[in-house]
Amino acid sequence: MKNILPWAIAAILLFALIGVGTCNRQKNDKIEDLEAQLEFSKKETIQFQNKYGEMVAQVEQIATTNEKTIKDLSAKVFNLTASQEATVKKVTDFTRIIQSVSNKNPIVIRYTDTVEKPSDFYVGNLVNKDSVVIPPRKFQDSTANYSIAGTVLLEGVTIDKVNFPDTLSTRTILQRPKGLINRIFKPNTYQVQSIHTNPLYQTSGIQNITLKEKPNAWNRWIKPALFLGGGVFLGSKIIK
């Protein structure tokens, strides 16, 4: 037993050193590295239908132990003021969803009044005959926030194509209370933030639930006991 104990303690310390070394390597992650991984994961996203025919998107999580990098990466996206970002103590999760609203089939919008003949279509000054719109007449418009194309008909307007691109970003933060007094007497709380790149999108509410995991026996009792025993053993050897 006396011969086994030193080897067991040495093995525990070796595993601990390996774990620290792994963490140190992961902490070398840079913002550019995480952005590159995010771009790659966009290509790896899979989509499938649920039992109601609704599309579900899924992608594997990217893991990092570098708290500063993920915080700085999300700060670039959310663009908070210095005082607002100062309340963010830590970012535990950052998600970016590339999405858009578009039509699969043409949308027909009928006029509420009656159009009897093409000459009833005028734009601008009715006296100016050059302003007459003779259906069918194509139209289209495009900006960074939307694109639309359609046709003006006697019966109404047909929206052939419409698209509203957007990137939704969310992050889970550990937020400090504002003010020195509040930071002394009030605890930090986890909050979820979201932001759209397209100003035409509005968030009306956020709902979030997280799983609070209980510490297992290994992390709560066994590992501390082993490290304590190893420390006592090494200490007794050094004293001798």
SSE order and pairing:
Elements: H1 4-26, H2 31-44, E1 46-49, E2 55-58, H3 67-78, H4 82-86, E3 88-102, E4 107-110, E5 137-142, E6 147-152, E7 156-175, H5 180-185, E8 189-196, H6 217-239
Antiparallel strand pairs: 1-2, 3-7, 4-7, 5-6, 6-7, 7-8
Helix pairs in contact: 1-6
Structure description:
By secondary structure, the protein is α+β, with helices and mostly antiparallel strands. Among the domains are: 60 residues; 55 residues, no CATH class; 26 residues. Helices cover 35% and strands 28% of the residues. The strands form 2 sheets. Strands 3, 4, 5, 6, 7 and 8 form a 6-stranded antiparallel sheet that branches. A hairpin with a 4-residue loop joins strand 5 and strand 6. Helix 1 packs across helix 6. The longest helix has 23 residues. The protein starts with a helix and ends with a helix.
Tell me the number of strands.
Answer: 8
Strand content: 25-35%
Shape: elongated
H/E series, N to C? HHEEHHEEEEEHEH
Helix proportion: 25-40%
Using only C-alpha atoms, the radius of gyration works out to: 30 Å
Helical element count? 6
Distance between the termini: 20 Å
Compute the average pLDDT.
80
List unreliable stretches of 5+ residues: 20-27
Summarize the main sheet: 6 strands, antiparallel
| Strand-pairing-aware structural class | alpha+beta
From the structure above, extract its key features.
240 residues, alpha+beta, 6-stranded antiparallel sheet, two-stranded antiparallel sheet, 6 helices, 35% helix
Concise account of the structure shown:
With 240 residues, this protein is α+β, with helices and mostly antiparallel strands.
